Amino acid sequence: MPQVVSVSELTETVARIFVRHGVHPDNAAAVAATVAAAERDGSTSHGLLRLPGYVASLQSGWVDGRAVPVVAEAAPGLIATDAANGFAQPALHASGPLLRDKARGQGIAALAIRDSHHFAALWPDIEPFAAEGFIALTMVNGRRRMAVWDGKQKILGTNPMAFACPRVGRPPLVWDQASSVIAQGEVLLAAERGLAIPQGAGLDAEGKPTIDPRAVLDGGSLVPFGSHKGSSIALMIEILAGALTGGCFSFEDRSAAYPGAQTPKAGQLVILIDPARVPGNRYFERIESLFAAIAESGVERLPAERRYGHRERALRDGIKLSDRNWATLQRLLA
Ligand code: NDP
User: Fold this and answer.
1) Alpha helices by DSSP H, the chain
2) What is the fold of 181-223?
3) Which residue, 131, 180, 195, 228, has most beta carbons within 10 Å?
4) pLDDT given for residue 1 in this prediction
5) Ligand 1 centroid from CA 244, angstroms
6) Stretches in the chain below the pLDDT threshold 70
7) 89: CA distance to ligand 1 center in Å?
8) What residues act catalytically?
9) CATH number for region 3-180+224-292+301-333
10) How far apart are CA 241 and CA 243, in angstroms?
11) What's this model's pTM, rounded to 2 decimal places?
12) Ligand 1 nearest-atom number relative to CA 175
């Protein structure tokens, strides 16, 4: 395999790796698309870097690569999908057509996914809905890694949330962010390189502030962004993605019983709204006036524009794999 690959070559290669490690081809295609999209868009923390973690979780028996999601119509505006201990992306894929129909028909619909393993960025889940004209929101809880503000021990996941909204003649506006000051991956990288983490990002096992990444990894916790405000958002996500869906809370994580497991078994909520259904809102015109005012205020870019730039270059020139990623692909294909 060359070290510069097209997006489709990378997607096929990653899918082949998943299949080789026991994942059903349909599920493999859904997860591989997310991994390759992250690499294409420069979301490298959630692209190929995560592939060994997916495979380790599969090998540990913690996640079922052959799971068949069960989609149930729970109420006129609500779908409840059991991911059956599989990856989240196949569950979303299986639920997508019904979710779209309901949101189109009623103006709004929600999808509650439980017992799903989400190990990726969230924007690939909702950007396509926004490209079809929906306002979309999603949130995922995970493994316990983060303290509640003022708490001393980890209780919450780094619970990410993403928002996407459609525009006319342009790709959607999308943002996608974790609830922690820094991601767990950054702590791992800092520990590996012997570097400190930023002030205010971590606590040690006694709940005291630390800049030592090893202290965070050794029984410590991450800190929510924006003090009590980020903490409340993460708490809401825990309730909506963990309790509402019928999935696990982050603090209930049982992955330690499966050595090697890295993916979180938790839940996900997706909400779609059709902005065209509110009479007289002039939504499309008005959001452009908002973005114009933001640009005039001196802001140079909106969220997602960095990714779109990466995407354009990757689709034109291919994706240049780092030596590390190339070696990972070779090893996992072997
Ligand atoms: P970042 O802080 O890197 O970025 C958050 C958002 O802010 C992005 O949408 C980004 O857009 C936008 N942004 C960044 N800088 C600017 C700027 N100067 N102006 C405007 N917008 C800006 O993200 P996080 O580190 O918080 O999260 C990274 C990823 O980790 C997310 O994709 C998240 O879903 C994922 N994650 C997944 C978890 C899981 O369990 N599956 C757990 C935790 C995190 P842009 O992309 O264009 O830079």
Assistant:
1) 7-20, 25-40, 51-60, 88-106, 123-131, 184-193, 213-217, 227-237, 283-296, 305-317, 323-333
2) Wheat Germ Agglutinin (Isolectin 2); domain 1 (3.30.60)
3) 180
4) 58
5) 25
6) 1-2
7) 19
8) 45-46, 186
9) 3.30.1370.60
10) 6
11) 0.97
12) 9
